[in-house]
């Protein structure tokens, strides 16, 4: 890869040791960068750390990490003390166990990285690990120190290489049971469920991330362009939320292929349809007898 490796070390499975290099798999470098500026002067702002008691700026060499033992009292931790306290495994992805891919709970996924062999001489061991994982449809649970922090890592075969995904610790992931406990049990109308299933079938597709559209970035780019050109920015209309009583009708329209229309687009058509229906009914109704002129 042309990118710079963010980590170099070895994968250790029992007595098999394979040197690898780690590269970031996701990047935000192509996003639009916005900066904080002074509204009055237009100048860019810079972050400044100040002492909360004296209100004076603190030089970089005097900025250290601390743990609050009681209100306003801290134990200072020097950078070299933190480094010395970190477990000595910052260059080893030590595999603890293997799990089947079906067991993977994606809630724990953090960030993905690509693993490549460190050199041509280590390719055989690398390919052996990759193919063994692929054949068994398994993933390896390992741990190492990344960016000064001990992290659990999930290693999976992916095409010609390996993907290492850092994992969140259990205490970092909120309980789904607690998160969803306020959602009540409710029986769904069979017709509504049938329509929903029909919509899922008609909308079935394949995972094609290259077709994903970052609408936020596109809208932000258009906003910046409009401001630079001095054009008026027209805000987009938000779609109306489907009301409880309109849910069945919304499902029916979606099943008929009209689900992408917004409520505002649907309403005139409904009114028009109602008007035409009304005129048809009027036409079908026998004309009232005319009054004779006196």
Describe the structure.
With 294 residues, this protein is an alpha+beta fold. Among the domains are: 108 residues, Beta Barrel (Ku70, Chain: A, Domain 2); 30 residues, no CATH class. It has seven helices and nine strands. Helix 4 runs parallel beside helix 6. It is extended and about 65 Å long. It starts with 6 loop residues before the first strand and ends in a 10-residue tail after the last helix. The C terminus is likely disordered. Belongs to the prokaryotic Ku family.
Q: What's the architecture of the domain at 7-26 and 85-172, going by CATH?
A: Beta Barrel
Q: What is the H-and-E element order? A: EEEEHEEHEEEHHHHH
CATH-assigned fold name of the domain at 7-26 and 85-172: Ku70, Chain: A, Domain 2
Q: Report the biggest beta sheet as strand number plus sense, adding barrel if it closes.
A: 7 strands, mixed, barrel
Task: Evaluate the radius of gyration.
Answer: 31 Å
Number of DSSP strands?
9
Poorly predicted ranges: 261-294
Q: What level of helicity do the residues show? A: 25-40%
Tell me the distance between the termini.
100 Å
Mean pLDDT: 82
Q: Number of helix segments?
A: 7
% residues in beta strands? 15-25%
User: Could you say which overall geometry the principal axes of the C-alpha atoms support?
Assistant: extended
- In what order do the strands lie side by side in the largest sheet? 1-2-6-9-8-7-5
CATH class of the domain at 7-26 and 85-172: Mainly Beta
Structural class: alpha+beta
